[in-house]
Amino acid sequence: MNPSRWLRPRLLGLVVVMLALLGVASYLTMARQEDPSFPYRAGMITVIYPGAVAESVERLIVEPLADELSQVEEVDFISATARTGVALVSVRLLDNIYHTDAAWDRVRQAITRAELEFPEGVQSIELDDRLIDIPAVVLAVRGDPSLVHLSAQAERLKRQLMDLPGLSRIELYGDTDEQITIALRDAEMRRLGLSPGQLTALLAQRNQVIPGGFVVVGSQRLGILPNSEFISVNALRATQIPLPQGGSVPLAAIADIWRGPTEPLGERAWYDGDPSVLVGLVLERGQVDAIRFGQQLRARLDALAPEFAPLQIDEMFFQPDQVKQRLDGLESNLVSSVLIIIAVVLLGMGWRMGVLVALMLPLVALISLGLYDLGGGILHQIAVIGMVISMGILIDNAIVMVENIQARLNAGASCAQAVLGGIGELAAPLGASTATTLAAFAPMLLSKGGTADFTRGIPVMIMLTLSVSYLLAISVAPLLAGRFLRPARQRANPRLQAVAATLARLSEVAPKPMLLLGGLVVVLSLALAPLVKLQFFPNADRPQVVIELYMPEGTDQLRTSEVAAQLEAELVSRPGVETVHRFVGATGPSFYYNLTRSPQAPNRARLVINTRELADTAPLIQWVRSAVAARWPELDVVASPLGQGPPVAAPVELRLYHPDDRQRIAAAEQLFALLKQIPGALDVRHDIDLGVPVVRIDVDDAQAERFGLSRADVAKALYRQSLGTTVEQYRQELDPIPLVLRSHEGSRQSLNRLLSASVFNAGGDAVALSAVARIVPDWQPASITQRDGVRVLTVTAGLEQGYSFSQVMRALQARLRVSPLPEGTRMEVGGESEGSGDANRALFTTAPVGMLLLLFFLLLQFNSFTRLGIVLLTVPLASAGVLPGLVLSGAPFGFQSLLGVIALVGIVVNNAIVLIDVIDQRLAEGLDINAAVSEAVLRRTRPILLTTATTIAGLLPLALSSSTLWPPMAWAIISGLLASTVLTLLVVPAVCRLVLRAKPSAAVAGAPSCADIFK
């Protein structure tokens, strides 16, 4: 048969060239991002209930919400915090939810049902179901001491940037709205006989939007503009207030009026010490190139800069630069891998065969990249890593095919015979080996959850490249081999041939000792398990430190800001520190995917430090801990580098439940003390609420009734004195500005001043607060936390460098066996342990699918349970070198190492398949088992060793890179492959010699027995 007529080389060449060009175009144009995006599974419900204490917020807000949310099937868990005046409910959807919009609609319906049970006085209910969105760029607008002016300019900048391509939305951080404060003078009010209620009614009456209509004069309509609302602050000051005894006075005579920022201030931000308002730009999901967006944004900012002078617009966080740096580094690793693999192939196969095999690398990479782009793929670090891993594996098929055709040419076959014979002999076993590798990665592809979403690009890219490599190996590679290869006098490298002969002789002379050797190596490897550190995901390799500051609950934001500023002032003088950014009242924008956005809290602050080098972060973190302990003992600080993987509250997180509050607190205190003693545990903290002092106003109802007052009148009067009440809106600008009626000092007035306030009845008479109420000092919880409707306390800890969460948890469990927690206490382990367990469970849940596919393809290829068992025997051999490699390299065992083990299984199974396939072919030709196994080892040793060498060579740049995320996976594959390849070439042949037997030919065998059928 003429292979050119069957394979259509011209048509095939055209298709391959076009697909390769598609790959080139895709590489130049496809979207680039640093990390994959996650489904919207996290949300935050914020309910504002002014004046209510934490216990009332829990009872009246949190519990109805928890009851309704628990009925939403898509909700995994809810975590709620009740504070004075606010309820914060975090909602997490199940990991198997990917179409989240419908789930959040049901959450909104549950909120609506709960709202029917809420008391009067609830001001606002807000659900943020885009909590995980992070801004690609955070700009800082600074250069003016007025926060109001900075906010206005940040809003103007926002309007100028909204038409950028690929932009989803723009959020402002640290900005403030305005209010017009009407600060009443109580003495003047009492002297003139005026009450706040009368003033409120009058201002509302004089600030109405009432149209005056129009009149027709000739052919023109003239609009009539009645003076029905305040057109300026001066007009408000001058408005006349009628007096009960006659006459009137301007409002300015009884009140001070000014325009300023809303009080109390919300979150604040400082860029390297300067007050700033931040502009966060969130990109659309999908095909948005972050690098190109960054270039367009910088061009726009350069054009806009003169318009905002003398204000400065600085890049606080600029993700496009990080994307470029990350992808450039990984692409450099990819190019290095390709060059090293080509060098190994040329040395191992000679220049003619080596060039043919090496040609498969760029072809497969480009075609795979083009198909990946057509499928909507985004070029991020996970996809590039998948391609790096597959580089050494994907040429396995081409190596075997080219070797086979060269052997046939050496044996005297014609070009057509060699090509067709090679395809006929290898198409099925190579297809089976490729399919089994795909089956090994199927669990990763099918698993669900945050970890699976983060790493899914790896199985997608590996499965795609391996599929393309198989198709090219049975089409393009044979045609090129038939066209360019020539019969060679020397059939194989004599050194490799000697190695292969030695391996064949060992399995023939001592098959049982080889089996024992394999079992002993596996056992010794497993014995090293206690020496391996467990780590879910490592820290990031960015030269940044994040310092979380927790002042005691109830601390005012000004005090929090003061402490954060003092710490910042000392940090800027530390060696290695470049810039420090400060956020007070909240944690600021989540500029990194691993950071979670926290709600506003006056006792919270965050410092983000940019250091010159990654090595500067560790000593800086140690200094922060010692400095805070010495100077601010009331401050809880958590200093750490950025993390990797799905976000967790802390590496070690322990949740404690007990129906009795005192026992729960005792358990948390005990756990806190134990963790402080454990080596490796740092930044240990708990959320035990010590409470805050309050002033309880007990109204005497009978006495209040005598003065024409009620409890509500007293509460409203106190609220007006401190925070103020909104009486109307000033509508002369784009956004209405509230008119706030309050005392002059507001929340900054002394306690004596507040308690001496007057309460006005309906008739406008002023009554002293002390005449109708008793003032009682009290102590109230500052915050109450729940999880799934049950009160909970949490103890968290970070990890010292070189320690893993497994080491800390083992030490803690040992101490708890000696000193158990109070009876009835239930402890849940969260943090990295929970995240690792969830990720592993998700993977193992889909593992049966991968195993069934593996068994299916093996049985399809061999139709023999015996051969199936031999192939599966290589699976434990694949892990024999993993643990020793991790111990020697110092890399921890985590999710990345588990990915390495999965890749190993696919590679080693492939080696066993092609080895057994040659044995079966030789048995079918009439050779005895020893001769068949020896020839199989001689023929397959070089391809197996070359595959091992190319895979290791391709992973070396990744293993030696400065990244903290991928070296554990690379070392797991490298060390495991070194050990498993040797064991496979020794153990599999030995098992075959002991188990397999030559099959009688069909001519003499007659009808097969049942035993033969199911063998």
Radius of gyration: 36 Å
- Number of discrete helical segments: 36
Count of individual beta strands: 31
What's the end-to-end separation, in Å? Answer: 36 Å
The stretches of 5 or more residues where confidence is low (pLDDT under 50) are: 1002-1006
- The computed structural class is alpha+beta
Percent in helix: 40-55%
Give the biggest sheet. 9 strands, antiparallel
- Overall, the morphology is elongated
Strand proportion: 15-25%
Mean pLDDT reading: 85
Short description:
The chain has 1015 residues and is of the alpha+beta class. It is built from 36 helices and 31 strands.
What can you tell me about this protein's structure?
The protein is an alpha+beta fold and 1015 residues long. 53% of the residues lie in helices and 18% in strands. It contains 36 helices and 31 strands. Strands 5, 6, 13, 14, 15, 16, 17, 18 and 19 form a nine-stranded antiparallel beta sheet that branches. It has a six-stranded antiparallel beta sheet with strand order 4-1-3-2-28-29. A four-stranded mixed beta sheet has the order 12-7-24-23. A hairpin with a 2-residue loop joins strand 8 (214-217) and strand 9. Helix 18 packs across helix 33, helix 19 (511-527) packs antiparallel against helix 34 (967-995) and helix 32 (895-924) packs antiparallel against helix 33. The chain is elongated and about 125 Å long.
